[in-house]
Amino acid sequence: MPAIVLVGAQWGDEGKGKATDLMGSAVDYVVKFNGGNNAGHTVVIEGPDGSREKYALHLLPSGILSPNVVPVIGNGVVIDLSVLFQELDGLNARGVDTSRLLISANAHVIAPYNRTLDKVTERFLGARKIGTTGRGIGPTYADKMNRVGIRVQDLFDPHILQQKAEAALSFKNQVLVKIYNTRAADAARVVEELLSYAERLRPMVADTSLLLEEALKAGKNVLLEAGQATLLDVDHGTYPFVTSSSATAGGACTGSGIPPTRVSRVIAVMKAYTTRVGEGPFPTELFDDLGETLRKVGHEYGTTTGRPRRCGWVDTVIGRYATRINGVTDFVVTKLDVLTGLDTVPICVAYDVDGVRHDEMPVNQSDFHHATPIFEELPGWWEDITGCRRFEDLPENAQAYVLRLEELIGARVSAIGVGPGRHEIIERHPLLD
Length: 433
Ligand code: GDP
Ligand code: IMO
Ligand code: MG
Description:
Blueprint: E1 3-8, H1 16-23, E2 29-32, E3 41-46, E4 52-57, E5 70-73, E6 78-79, H2 81-93, E7 102-104, E8 108-109, H3 112-125, H4 137-146, H5 158-179, H6 187-195, H7 198-201, E9 205-206, H8 208-217, E10 222-225, H9 249-254, E11 263-271, E12 274-276, H10 289-297, E13 310-312, E14 314-315, H11 316-326, E15 330-334, E16 344-353, E17 356-358, H12 365-369, E18 372-379, H13 396-409, E19 412-417, E20 425-427
Parallel strand pairs: 1-10, 1-11, 2-5, 2-10, 5-7, 6-8, 7-9, 11-15, 14-16, 15-19
Antiparallel strand pairs: 3-4, 12-13, 16-17, 16-18, 19-20
Helix pairs in contact: 3-4, 5-6
The chain binds guanosine-5'-diphosphate, 6-O-phosphoryl inosine monophosphate and magnesium ion.
The site of magnesium ion (MG) has 6 residues, from loops.
């Protein structure tokens, strides 16, 4: 059976958690392949009595909420062990069975000094800051590339762990003390903290790449779920205003150990408008009351940091780019309900950069920084769409909006979100074969 990749098309928070949850009952494994607890996925599950249970997941794959799914943290993820266990305890306390969780022995661990470094680096950058989540993500990936990182498997060899912590700190303590004027980290204490998690971690650790290959051979469905999104990808995003991992479809293979030849489908989740958290360019951003309205109606406040999200209209230049970079076969367009009640709904179809029209993402980041959107205005709709479950149930203008998006982004829109709940979705084409 094939592997399916699910990515974000914009700057994150598109509703990937909800989309994964939607497929939960039909997949066997959900693998998180990049990022760490910088991600924040909100999943809302309706009870039979109409009650709503809200779950905020950071490090765990969203599939953990589906009873038959095996959730996997792949080798491409960076793990803050205290957050991992807090999240597991939180779910267990709410009656969620997390005992199936598997963690790659090759995943890297966020050491406490990297959380410190993330925060002090941002402070040091001042006006040039990235606006990171402060979780130590960037410094941990930097350590991985620098070959001074600590991996999950190192926790089971205290001698190696001590050596690695000392090696990393021999340099980092110079930076912490001499450049950032802060306290040095003590290698022995770092080792002690990490080792305190080892025994609880041990039964979850596995050769996840091998297990996933065996699962695929046995005909199981494997969903590879991205954190972050296309424009936050370290290679293909709006660098340097990106995260430090590969959040696009290519990253799904390196971050899980599943080869590209196994992937049969790539689903991208795209909000019916656009949001961004942190710094960096955003051509369709709104600075007026309409932006505030989108933020309020769409509850656009970060799941991880609580920061208000920057809001703007949908951008199909970005949509087309996401289709190209990820090889998208299907889009899930979320939050269409948030656009209800507007006279007209603008769609960005291209950019104007110093008088020159760009139909594709400008290759130079400086051009993207001062790109002015060229909009097409579509008529709005006023009817409540949250109860719609078939495409034909949507008001004609809402249908026309989705069809125009589909045409501009170059891949079919297979599902449409009309509310935060698990069942508030219109499925036009099956997301699984
Ligand atoms: P993720 O990081 O991509 O998983 O997305 P987040 O969970 O950070 O943000 C998406 C937010 O939108 C969450 O609060 C979801 O509950 C909510 N959401 C998802 N789909 C829809 C939808 O179709 N309509 C509405 N109104 N909310 C949605
Ligand atoms: P999900 O998975 C939105 C942003 C941060 C910052 C930049 C770098 O919920 O879509 P980092 O801490 O990763 O070094 O920060 O990336 N960012 C996100 N924005 N959704 C996310 O994840 C994000 N993860 C990181 O705000 O601008
Ligand atoms: Mg999020």
